[in-house]
Design brief:
The protein contains nine helices and five strands, in the order H-H-H-H-H-E-H-E-H-E-H-E-E-H. With 199 residues, the protein is mainly alpha-helical. Helix 8 links the parallel strand 3 and strand 4. Helix 1 crosses helix 4 and helix 5 packs parallel to helix 9. The longest helix is centred in the last third of the chain and has 16 residues. The mean pLDDT is 92.
Length: 199
């Protein structure tokens, strides 16, 4: 999904910062939510005007956002199997809800935790613990699906099962995590993990 990094790059350029590519922005996502990333590139504290511009740009950039092929079916299968599904993202909660709504997925999740809801960004596990608490489960009962190494590190730090979403990003897996090449693989991997638990 390029809408969010493109919105960052647009905002940073518009607000007096450097001209950046999408990869430059993505490389800084681990720093935290939008105010932290913007401050990093602007070289000054983020203002309310900066954030308003970011949300305006994100709204414009996300008009045609679509989930990866197979994601809707994966979510449907998980829900019909009784799984509770939540989101923990480095994005702000407002940005996450905006993108989920644009993708038609805003009714698919029981809880959404944004990077601005926690004091420590990934790979610290606090946000994942918060999402688990919101769903009434422990981190040890949870699988965390992510496309970046910082997501998988977060899963390990929390004691959750890490699943590398390789359909979204070929990098990120260290060999210690399960790998899903397609969204439907997540359903199979969780089914296998449940079978192992029962044995």
């Amino acid at each position: 999904m390029r809408a969010a990094p493109a919105a960052y790059a647009d905002t940073i350029r518009c607000r007096g910062g450097p001209t950046l590519g999408v990869s430059d922005v993505i490389a800084a996502w681990h720093l935290g939510p939008a105010p932290v990333v913007l401050a990093h590139f602007l070289g000054r504290p983020t203002t309310a005007e900066d954030m308003a511009e970011y949300y305006r740009r994100l709204d414009l950039r996300s008009v045609d956002v679509e989930p990866f092929p197979g994601v809707r079916d994966m979510l449907r299968s998980l829900r019909s199997s009784g799984y509770r599904i939540g989101v923990y993202t480095s994005a702000t909660r407002r940005a996450a809800w905006l993108l989920l709504a644009r993708a038609g997925l805003d009714d698919a999740f029981a809880v959404v935790v944004g990077g601005d809801d926690v004091n420590s960004p990934k790979p610290a596990p606090h946000g994942l613990h918060m999402a688990c608490h919101g769903m009434g489960v422990t981190a040890e009962q949870t699988a965390y699906v992510g496309d970046a190494d910082v997501d998988l590190q977060c899963a390990r730090a929390a004691g959750s099962l890490g699943i590398h979403a390789r359909w979204a990003s070929p990098g990120g897996s260290t060999g210690r995590d399960l790998v899903a090449d397609r969204p439907e693989d997540v359903v199979c991997l969780l089914g296998q993990a449940s079978d192992l638990e029962r044995r």
